[in-house]
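User: Fold this; tokens only.

Assistant: Input:
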Amino acid sequence: MGRAPAVWSVPASVWWVGALLVGFLLTFGGGGLGGRQALASEPLVLGLDHVVVAVADLDSATATFRRLGFEVKEGRVHDGGIANRHVKFPDGTEIELMSVTEPRSALAMEYARAISGGDGAVFASLFAPSLVGVEERLTGAGFGEDRDDLRLGESRLLHRNLLASSMPERSTYRRSSIWVSLRMDVDYGQMVRRADRLLGALDGAVSLHITAPGGSDFRLDVTGRRFITDVRITEEERGANLPCGEVYGAPVEDGAEGVVVVEGAIGGEGPPPSPVRLELNAGRVETVHCASEAWQRRITELLDTDDGAGVIAELGIGLNPGARLVGFMLEDEKAYRTIHVAFGSNIGMPGGANESATYVDYLVTRPTMTARFADGRERMILEDGDICVSSGGE
């Protein structure tokens, strides 16, 4: 997971392939409730083409993947000063290991800049059956503008059609691809330090009081609940989204009280046309209000999916300074100065005990958060979205 020792950051990219694919299929596979009016109902993206992982030492990364059981195919040294190798899968998708031999081109310099902070995934290529209309639809969905050149760290449509002739090692494939970067080119060391500060500050907290300018004012019981982060892969925490960048935990299921006003994106639905007000009691959403009757009905339906769908499941705190609010929850929830609460299943999170067939995130911006401890002490952790607890190193 970029910006961290290659011994775990390169293998972690394997987990990101599935997370990235699911996120994009949910967003660009049609559906939604008007948050993405620019997208047509037919699927835009059918799958993942490949993920590029930039590494300082190509031989070392190759050895790591082979040790994990992957077959790594030789690549080549490109004229611009980059070299690659490939971890290919039967359906044609792959992880591409990329390194810089000598930064003689703009692309090589971009890779060198990314690698300077540590190994990690930098962008992904998605498989679309046809690129006709893709530019207009992606731009309308908030993913930037068409460019002929590759710029890491920006959500942009970057390349047109990749013909078989340009991919000799995959001569039996003829694919149309779009290249999109999801704010992976960031300072991962900074995110790790932020995560450590938050985890330290939350340790031992029994309740959290959260307010926000949009009108949110709610309390969460977190007694005995441990928070974790996706910026570090461990034996226990093996999975992560791409982009990564959050600290999260499962509040006590019957311990949420107050009002959450959602002015940001809603998972699987996009951003609402007007704020959604969720009134909480004993851990459940009791009432939904929105100026849009269609959205109010839709959110109510989601929360009524089954008995556990309206129960508090998660509190997440965004850490990623590069993530932007684009209406795509996979990126939005990682944005710094945001939090998100989720309702539904939290099985698999530390202490999580609520079962449901659904899980939906709701974004809140510029939160202020105060933690209360068993001895009565209180400590402000976030102020207007900024982390206001400190520890050495930043």
